[in-house]
Amino acid sequence: MDRTKIADALGGESQGQEITIAGWVRTVRHSKGGFSFIALNDGSCFAQIQVVADNTLANYDSEILHLTAGCSVIASGKLVASEGKNQSVEIQSTEIRVIGKSDAEKYPIQPKRHSFEYLRTQGHLRSRTNTFGAVARVRNRICSAIHEFFQQRGFLYVHTPIITTSDCEGAGEQFNVTTLQMNDIPRNDDGGVDFSQDFFARPTYLTVSGQLEVEPYCCSLGDVYTFGPTFRAENSNTPRHLAEFWMVEPELAFADLQCDMDLAEAFLKHIFRAVLEDCREDMQFFNERIDKTVIETLTHVIESDFERVTYTKAIEILTQTDRKWEYPVEWGCDLQTEHERFLTEEVFNAPVILTDYPRGIKPFYMRCNDDKKTVAAMDVLVPKIGEIIGGSQREERLDVLLKRMEQCGMDISEYWWYIDLRKYGTIPHAGFGLGLERTVQFATGMANIRDVIPYPRTPRNAEF
RNA sequence: UCCCCGAUAGCUCAAUUGGUAGAGCGAGCGGCUGUUAACCGCUAGGUCGUAGGUUCGAGUCCUACUCGGGGAGCCA
Fold first, then answer.
1. Average pLDDT value for residue range A355-368
2. What ipTM is given for this predicted complex?
3. Rounded mean pLDDT of chain A?
4. Would you say residue A168 has pLDDT above 80?
5. Does the nearest atom of strand B lie within 7 Å of A82's Cβ?
6. CB–CB of A381/A374 below 8 Å?
7. Which site in A126, A156, A439, A444 is 20 to 30 Å from A1, CA atoms measured?
8. CB burial class (10 A; 0-12, 13-18, 19+) of residue A67?
């Protein structure tokens, strides 16, 4: 079938031509004048196209008059200038084939506003709505912008494994991967699980981060990035957490924390610029119906220089304000959501990059600073979301790394391959992780992370 | 996992101090209309999340559980 996408039809270039479009009915209005108006959407853009159906159509009485929301149709006709006010062009149809009916009494997506909570129970159909169609298109554009950004800069896309044996040191609780039967688990003499009988003959997990596996590629091929799903078995019930989410993790070769921060800032700006430029209609919708400040916020991020502040300086700011904190602030403590939001929303009113955190609250692989107290870490904080990027320069000095792993009580033998990178041609390198869904949230203004991923996985929830 | 709030028609919500359930939207039918989240009229539709308890009487009060939302922790 030679199908014209509705986005192209509305572009108007084929005006005056005979075209065929296909999609799902949003609304139908019948006129006693002997014709009907069908608003058709095919997902190619936010807008519907209006199909005018005349009662001279063979199936006008038998089918067109009974069309309802959700029906799928293929319509052919001439693309003409519209007499109506809300669209410049419309299709004067010569044939409309009803492909799939949709029982209006039972169709879960009514032509009215639904709550997002309700639509989550209709995960297979919610992409038929304005909001979820727009989210899907923006999410897609963000993903293409991510690849675009790195490919333009000569970064290599590396696929790190989903099933891993390393835990990336405290990045989060992990899901076990096993083929052992739950009701018949083989035991060792000491009562522990006998993993030698498992598929991989050892405990394995779903990845919580591709960082450790992408570093070797960085230390041989230069600038690289990994981009894929990650999993956390944390019992987190918040609008900002998922058990399965997507993460982008670039790793820069021969680079320090400054390079890392420059990259992160340019990266975020590239993504938001792409969304604003290429998803105008969708963004207009989000700005009108979801968050009235979202376009302004994104524009502000693109145009402003990110504030770069050391952790130590941030603690100073937080202790000198009259603001009362639920969690007390002192040097050495991890910053809480209230602190991060205060800094980015009230003190700087812009994205903030916090750097040089105390060693004690950061993982083993971060590079120790000369002060022996802090590490070369950086977090990018944005309004509303808080931490959107976390990164660091990696510890490239073998002796320092080993000492640090020892202090952290790690089993060094498990990480022999990671340590090898410091033995054979070690280099300074740095990287960060960006949560895709939080980025989509920030770009769209959607309040709940469950509404920016097609099928959210959260504690006690894996429907669809 | 902790704290707070909620669950009533297909959906979004209302129901006074405990007295036996309503609206809007949607749907069906009819009217009107180059309409556009159209408009006007009529109709159908509910063991008030589940299980106990208090009471002459519970949508309303109490307890537990389930699910949902907000905040927090963990983090991306």
1. 94
2. 0.91
3. 93
4. no
5. yes
6. no
7. A126
8. buried
